Amino acid sequence: MSAIVETRALTRRYGDMVALHDLNLTIPQGAVYGFIGPNGAGKTTTMRILTTLLLPSEGEAYVAGHSVVRERLEVRRQVGFMPDFFGVYDNMQAHEYLEFFAEAYAINPARRSRLIDDLLELVDLTHKKQADVMGLSRGMKQRLSLARTMLHDPALLILDEPASGLDPRARVELRELLKELRRLGKTIMISSHILTELAEMCTHIGIIERGTLITSGDVNTILRSLQPHRTFEIHLLPGEGTEPLVSLEHAAALVRDLPHVLDVRMMPDEHPPQLHVDLDGDDHVVSALLAHLIGGGVQITHFAGQTNDLEDIFMQVTKGSAYGGTN
Q1: Antiparallel, parallel or unpaired: β 187-192 and 156-160
Q2: What is the β-pairing status of strands 79-82 and 156-160?
Q3: Which residues, other chains included, contact 314 with Cβ-Cβ below 8 Å and sequence gap of 6+?
Q4: Which CATH topology does 3-226 take?
Q5: Which residues form a coiled coil (predicted)?
Q6: pTM of the model
Q7: Helix-helix angle 168-183:138-149, to 10 degrees
Q8: 230-307, which class in CATH?
C-alpha cells in the first residue's frame, strides 16, 4: 500500500519550545488514521504543517509525493483541511458558504451548482440548503465544514478534533459519514484526545506525546505487539447436579497442558462461571482448544477472545509519561 503522507525528521520550534521533535510518520493511502494524543501533544502543529499553513523548522513532509515546503500549491490541491473551529459567517446561507469556497478553489461555475447539491446530499444537509449558517447546530456546522473540505475532491482529508463539542447523536452521524468517505476512496487523518471517538473507525493510529511520535501503524499490528498472546473468555454451563467449581476444574484440567496454552484462570464467582485461557497460537490453535473442550464434555455457552481497545493501547504505550508540550 503506497503512502499518501510521509514525514522525515519533522521538527517545529516556537522559540525555545519544541512542539515537534524528529517526527517520522507514514499514512497509507486509503487509511483512516487516528492521530491520538493529549491536548498540547503536537497534533495540530503536525496538521498545520501537512496543510502548508505552517513551515517546519527542520525536516520534511510530503503529501501525495509533493513537498509541503517546495510544492505548497500542489499539496493544497491534494488536501482538504477541517480545523477544530468553524469560523464566523454572518448572513450567509449554507449553499452560499459552499459557493464562496468553490469560487476560491476556482471550480468551474458550470459545475458548482450540481457539485454543491451532491455534497449537501452526502452530508445530509439538503434540507438546510437555504438555512443561515450560524443558525445551524454544532453537528450540522461540522458536516457543512466537511462538505467544504471536499469541494475540490482532495485525496486526503485532515480533520482536527472534528467531534469536539458534538452531542452523542451528532458523533454517530459524523462517524457514519467518515465511513462513507472511506468507502469513496478518501484517506482520512483525524485527530482527537478522546479515544472512544476513534475506536470504531480507525484502520491505523499514531500516538504522539510531547511532540514525539511514540508508536504508529495499523491497529491490529500494534495490538499484537502489545499483547503477543490472546486471552479467551469461556462461559461454562455446569452439568446437572454438578457444582460450578467442579465443572471449571474439569475444563481447566483438560486444557492446562495443551500446546500453546500459557495460562488458565478459573472464575467460579462470575455469573456464569468462567474460564480464561491465554494462547500464543493462531486460529487453528484456537479451534483445537474449543474442540478439545467440547470433546471432553464441557458445556460452553460463550467462547470469545478478549480485545484491547484504543484506550488500552494508549495507556500501555504512554505508561510512565507525563503530558506536556505545546499544541
Answers
A1: parallel
A2: parallel
A3: 36, 195, 207
A4: Rossmann fold (3.40.50)
A5: none
A6: 0.74
A7: 20
A8: alpha beta
pLDDT tens digits, 105-119: 999 999 999 999 999
Sequence ranges of the chain with CATH classification 3.30.70: 230-307
Helices 109-122 and 94-104 cross at an angle (nearest 10°) of 130
Q: For CATH 3.40.50.300, list the domain ranges present in the chain.
A: 3-226
**Stretch 259-266: mean pLDDT:** 92
Give CA–CA dist 302/128, Å, rounded.
47
CA distance 156 to 51: 10
Cα distance between residue 174 and residue 274, in whole Å: 38
Q: What is the rounded CA–CA span in Å between residue 44 and residue 286?
A: 43
Residue 110 grid cell: 458550470
In the three-class reduction of DSSP (H, G, I as helix; E, B as strand; rest coil), residue 141 is classed as helix
Q: Show Cβ contacts of residue 20 under 8 Å, excluding neighbours closer than 6 positions.
A: 10, 11, 12, 42, 45, 46, 49, 56, 211
For 36-51, the DSSP string reads E--TTSSHHHHHHHHT
Cell numbers describing residue 239 = 452439568
Question: Can you read off the three cell numbers belonging to residue 94?
Answer: 449554507
- Going by the DSSP 8-state scheme, the letter that residue 82 receives in this structure is E
Long-range Cβ contact pairs of 129-134 (< 8 A, separation 24 or more): 129/93, 129/94, 129/95, 130/93, 130/94, 130/95, 131/93, 131/94, 132/91, 132/92, 132/93, 133/89, 133/92, 133/93, 133/94, 133/96, 133/97, 134/88, 134/89, 134/90, 134/92
Average pLDDT, the chain: 86
How many helices and strands, by DSSP H and E, does the chain display? 10, 15
Residue 144 and residue 95: Cα distance in Å, rounded?
9
Tens of pLDDT, residue by residue over 123-165, are 999 999 999 999 999 889 989 999 999 999 999 999 988 877 7
